[in-house]
């Protein structure tokens, strides 16, 4: 009786782990899905071959909040 219960429990844990691994690995299966392992961050190079020096702005807050934080 106790051996059967341990085997059932082991099978259940193995099935859950297999399901979770399959679900987690499907997110990195194709490019351009947001998986950092597949996407390479790169900067667009200008026509003359130089790198841009201008930094971007994130605009995390709206314009009114940014003005309020400056003062």
Task: Map the helices and strands.
Elements: H1 2-25, H2 63-70
What does it look like?
- By secondary structure, this protein is mainly alpha-helical.
- Helix content is 45%, strand content 0%.
- It has two helices and no strands.
- The longest helix has 24 residues.
- It is elongated and about 70 Å long.
- 0% of the residues are buried.
Give the key terms.
71 residues, mainly alpha, elongated
Low-confidence stretches: none
Strand content: under 5%
Instruction: List the secondary-structure elements in sequence, H or E.
Output: HH
How many DSSP E strands? 0
Helix content: 40-55%
Shape type: elongated
Mean pLDDT: 75
Rg, alpha carbons: 25 Å
Straight-line N-to-C gap? 73 Å
Derived from helix and strand composition plus strand pairing, the structural class reads: mainly alpha
Q: What is the count of DSSP helices, taking H or I runs of 4+ residues? A: 2
Major beta-sheet overview? none
Task: Give a quick summary of the entry.
By secondary structure, the protein is an all-alpha fold. Helix content is 45%, strand content 0%. The mean pLDDT is 75.
């Amino acid at each position: 009786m106790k051996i059967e219960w341990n085997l059932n429990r082991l099978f259940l844990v193995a099935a859950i782990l297999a399901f979770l691994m399959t679900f987690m690995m499907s997110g990195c299966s194709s490019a351009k899905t947001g998986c950092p392992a597949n996407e390479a961050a790169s900067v667009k190079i200008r026509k003359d071959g130089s790198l841009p020096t201008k930094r971007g702005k994130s605009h995390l807050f709206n314009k009114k909040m940014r003005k309020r934080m400056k003062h």
